[in-house]
Specification:
Layout (H helix, E strand, L loop, with lengths): L3 E4 L2 E4 L4 E7 L8 E6 L6 E6 L5 E3 L7 E5 L5 E6 L8 E7 L10 E6 L1
Parallel strand pairs: 2-10
Antiparallel strand pairs: 1-3, 3-8, 4-5, 4-9, 5-6, 7-8, 9-10
Length: 113
């Protein structure tokens, strides 16, 4: 079973940037991977996904501001977040899409106005 460990979150002012990382215990060669966000009081939602061949797509709320990537060895996936807004606040998780790995602990992102 793949274990996922997210990192890179923090407190940032609106307009700032963060880079999130997710490292897996095993490679996810043939999986579409995604970053999910769970905002306070809301359900977890996909904000970005990347296919096994590197095709990315984004939720409309982050398009043009976030960039998802995966490393060549398929053991890590990243989320570069720019022009952050307060509504980007939440706990960010990575998982396959659809999700079938155990969830990691996530990484908290807090954007202050």
């Amino acid at each position: 079973q793949v274990q996922l460990v997210e990192s890179g979150g923090g407190l940032v002012q609106a307009g700032g940037s963060l880079r999130l990382s997710c490292v897996a215990s095993l490679s996810f060669d043939f999986e579409t991977m995604a970053w999910y966000r769970q905002a306070p009081g809301k359900q977890r939602e996909v904000v970005a996904r990347i296919s096994e061949n590197g095709i990315a797509n984004y939720d409309a709320s982050v398009k043009g501001r976030f960039n998802i990537s995966r490393d060549i060895d398929n053991i890590a996936v990243y989320l570069q977040m720019s022009s952050l807004k307060p509504e980007d606040t939440g706990v960010y998780y990575c998982n396959s899409a659809p999700s079938f790995y155990s969830w990691g602990q996530g990484t908290q992102v807090t954007v202050s106005s």
